[in-house]
Write the structure tokens for this entry.
Amino acid sequence: MWLVRILLVTISGLVMAGTIVTGSGPHAGGPGAIRIPIAFRDVAELHADIALFLIGMTLATVFALHHAKAPGVVQRRARTMLEVLAVQGALGYTQYFLHDNSLVVEFHLAGATAAFSAAVSLYLALHRTEQGVPAAAERARETGRAGAGSGRVVVNAPA
Ligand code: HEM
């Protein structure tokens, strides 16, 4: 789905912008290290704007998937991505307003990994359901029967 592709492209840009923020700020090496010559504050604000756009697009994706009655696994992964991004956004603003507190930055970096993983996991769920695999597994779970991709092998018993 094109919305999910937009999420993947946006989060990739966001992570790159975050790396530039770090490269222009106090955590890019020791006191004498050469930093990226961009105003830390400006690039941090651009990074935050991309983050807000991503959160908005993810919220829209959650609604679109719900409206389209997408398979449960896809909807769950989209919600997980939204939740991870909400925590990550809150961490980002906390570190920004605490003057780039290094402990919060550590959590922000871990959160960035979680957010990117959540985005890839959503894309993979969507891609696989388009091929019908988890969709069949889910239908089988709902009806209580094993099916293609359910992870259970169905052997026809001899009559
Ligand atoms: C919500 C999704 C977000 C993601 C996925 C994200 C991701 C990242 C990444 C990957 C980095 C740098 C990694 C590196 O050092 O190579 C970073 C740095 C940073 N981010 Fe975010 N970010 C998000 C939101 C925000 C928000 C809302 C703010 C608020 C201003 C923010 C503020 C910062 C700051 C100040 C740094 C520099 C930290 C340092 O000094 O090392 N981030 N972010």
